[in-house]
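User: I'm new to structure prediction. If I give you an amino acid sequence, what do you actually give back? Let's try with this one:
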Amino acid sequence: MTDLVVVSLERWDDVWRRNQILLAGLLGADPDLRVLVVEPPADPLHALAGRRRPRRGAGLVARGRADGVPAGRLWTYQPTKWLPRRADAFVGTSADTRMAHTVLQVARRLHLHAPVLWVNDPAGATLARVSSWPSLYDITDDWLAAHRSPAQLARLRDDEDFLMATCRTVVVCSAALARTKGAIRPVRLVPNAVDLDAFRRPRARPRDLPPGRVALYAGTVHPDRVDVGLCVRLGDELRTTGLGTLVLVGPALVSEQDRTLLHDAGVQVLGPRPYATVPAYLQHADVLVVPHVVDPFTDSLDPIKLYEYQAVARPVVSTPVAGFRDLHHPAVHVLDSRAFVDGVTSVLVGPPLPPGPLPQTATIPTWAERVTEMQDVLVGLRATT
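Assistant: Good question. You get back a string of structure tokens that encode the predicted 3D arrangement of the chain. For your 385 residues, that looks like this:
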């Protein structure tokens, strides 16, 4: 492998997710690999409509050691979506097509003449259409099962149908996705994992953790995943009983109304923290929680926290979501939303645990193993060209 263009669901930042971890590992393993990550576009008009400060896309950015990757071999590109899709009929071409052609120009500028296209965001179907690049569809969420408007679902369905029909390889991250997407065509299962050494190395208690006992959630706080009402009930119970504090660590993509409800319930929403610091938060939690919605969308996930929580071996209370409901361990309590709050408080009334990772004997897959699996996928894809 020498060149990759990756259409990502997230921006490249210090809150690392699956694709950033895998790409960093692939870059470290192959000194000839070059990568262009196409980030979600900036949308100034949408920002204005939401009363947020509008901004244009960051454009082309060269990444290096400060971003956790070798210098000179990874670039990110964030386009700008200047017009809403409803204007496409007047302009004559779609916004997605215009941005796809811009990505082709950026790739040529970087001399990425025959890359493999790695599509994580289904919107990357447009780039797959206009390019002749061999393509990989990496499915990490079943967006067709998410709560979206009819227009959004129709667009997602069209994009996914094209990708499923034309991509040379389809990778999925969960057993549920292997069943649903594998019923359509052959897929390759590459689940998530953990950097075991990083999460097992003892860390000092983060200064922004509140005093006293802590129930902690690590991950993106989004209504697609997190049951905000359940968090409010748990936070209120911990506050009124004095048992501790519910802390949410991760990007908080919730409405102002939900933020107010969480704040009033005593929940501390810390927001995103750099990936390298996340182990410390987990190691110093008295109980790790997974207050997830249980529905077809969350059933499609393979939560990275499943592996990270196991690595630190702290007590866990989870709703019966994919991954956690299949763990059979005395320290993992899987409860429905009605019993969830009582399950957390029953852990917190017990004696405090020592800080740091607790002893664990489970065999947990590592990201190094997953990087090797993705190398095999990419080499096989390139061999078919």
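You can read the tokens as a compact description of the fold. Here is one thing that stands out. The first strand starts at residue 3 and ends at 7.
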